[in-house]
Amino acid sequence: MRAAKNTRPIKSTDDRAADILGPDDETLGWCEDANGLVVSDAGRTALDADLQTLAALTGSIKPKSAAIRGQTFRRAAVVENADALAEAIGDVVVSLLEV
To answer: Structure pTM?
Structure first.
């Protein structure tokens, strides 16, 4: 049996994630240096709530840099948590726009 011309192999979820995400891990959060973060108290509350949400997700890893307040996700964890990550990002954006 001959293979059909112009066909591509079926990609796994991890392969599709690689096409979207590239080779690196994804980190969600913010950089907080010695000057601190310039945001209102309500904004800080929204960011801290988002950070807690991200930290509770399967596969979340604390970033190596102490200046980064957030969570890092390897490709498989991004795929596994895609819906929850999208919801968390949307929630924090809405919260920050309301302050």
So the answer is: 0.71
Please state the rounded mean pLDDT for residues 36-43: 86
pLDDT tens-place string over residues 60-78: 999 988 889 999 999 899 9
Question: DSSP string spanning the chain?
Answer: -PPPTT--PPPPHHHHHHHHH-SS-EEEEEE--TT-----HHHHHHHHHHHHHHHTSTTEE--SSTTEEEEEE-HHHHHHTHHHHHHHHHHHHHHHHH-
User: Please, how many CA atoms are within 13 Å of residue 13, restricted to the half-sphere of its CB?
Assistant: 8
Contact 57, 84 (CB under 8 A): yes
> Is the Cα torsion angle 40, 45, 46, 52 positive or negative in sign?
positive
